[in-house]
From TrEMBL:
InterPro entries: Aminotrans_IV (IPR001544), Aminotransferase-like (IPR036038), BCAT-like_C (IPR043132), BCAT-like_N (IPR043131), Class-IV_PLP-Dep_Aminotrnsfr (IPR050571)
Cellular compartments per GO CC: cytosol
Origin organism lineage: Bacteria, Bacillati, Actinomycetota, Actinomycetes, Pseudonocardiales
Gene: pabC
Entry GO MF terms: lyase activity
Keywords, comma-separated and alphabetical: Lyase
Protein name (Swiss-Prot/TrEMBL): 4-amino-4-deoxychorismate lyase
Length: 280
């Protein structure tokens, strides 16, 4: 099932052609996006996602349509989706047609969440570490590289996931050139040690995670400490639990790192899921 809404709130056939072949999003990957989890008709962290969309638009100099237009499109999708169950709601904005009048292309698309993602939430995943080819100071030195913007230029991320599959793993944790840990191709890294949750800093050029922020809020209410600080591979092996989190995958535990089994964190995973869900 899919539901497609344009920014004026009208619905249209998701199987019909809508994007011109000379759209810069298609031609050059020149666009931005957000993916929002909706549960039982309610979008999670919608405000935070729209804030991040605006931040990405500012970083890429894309003239983002106003917030009301996105909210209108989101509501149109929600109103035409079954009231119960889950949906991945994708907001996409490209720079528009090459040589056009500068009007961006924007839409909201609701999609079902696949069984593979559901199984990984339940059973956990294996990951490999792969170098991302950046150093910790690069985001500040070279803002034109758009590190930390959520662009639709995901070819490297998808190539990394294919490399993980070639190595017999499910996913990836990227590392910087100095060995610092970054993020997954489509997720944020969270490490649990004792009653402290940690995640790498956005200053490394990674995307601030909306799901990670919600998890941290819930854990803090339960008396946990949370930290944003640099992490390295040995921190993962020494941790009580390692997790990749995102809107669609929610809280997913990592049970194997570079072929090595990690500490069994199934019970801890259930506890953290409870903290996250308590936010909604």
């Amino acid at each position: 099932m899919r539901v497609l809404a344009m920014l004026d709130g009208t619905l249209t056939d998701p199987d019909a052609p809508h994007i011109r072949v000379d759209d810069l999003g298609l031609m050059r990957g020149d666009g931005i996006f957000e993916t929002i989890l909706a549960v039982d008709g309610r979008p999670r962290e919608l405000g935070a996602h729209l804030d991040r969309l605006a931040r990405s638009a500012a970083m890429t100099d894309i003239p983002l349509p106003d917030r009301a237009a996105w909210e209108r499109a989101v509501q149109a999708v929600l109103d035409n989706w079954p009231a119960d169950g889950e949906m991945a709601l994708k907001l996409v904005c490209t720079r528009g047609v090459d040589g056009g009048d500068g009007t961006p292309t924007g839409f909201a698309l609701g999609m079902e969440i696949g069984e593979r993602v559901r199984a990984q939430r339940r059973d956990g995943i294996s990951v490999v570490t792969l170098e991302r080819g950046i150093d910790p100071g690069l985001a500040d030195r070279a803002p034109w590289l758009l590190l930390g913007a959520k662009t639709i230029s995901y070819a490297i991320n998808m190539a990394a996931q294919r490399e993980a599959e070639r190595r017999g793993a499910d996913d990836v944790v990227f590392t910087a050139s100095d060995g610092s840990l970054l993020e997954g191709p489509t997720s944020t890294l969270v490490v649990a040690s004792g009653r402290t949750l940690r995640t790498p800093p956005a200053q490394l050029g990674i995307l601030p995670g909306t799901t990670q922020a919600a998890l941290f809020r819930g854990a803090e209410r339960a008396g946990w400490a949370t930290k944003v600080e640099p992490l390295r591979v040995p921190d993962l092996r020494a941790a009580d639990g390692v997790f990749l989190v995102s809107s669609v995958r929610r809280i997913t535990r990592v049970h194997t790192l570079d072929g090595e089994r990690l500490t069994d964190s199934a019970d801890l995973h259930a506890e953290l899921v409870g903290y996250y869900e308590s936010e909604y």
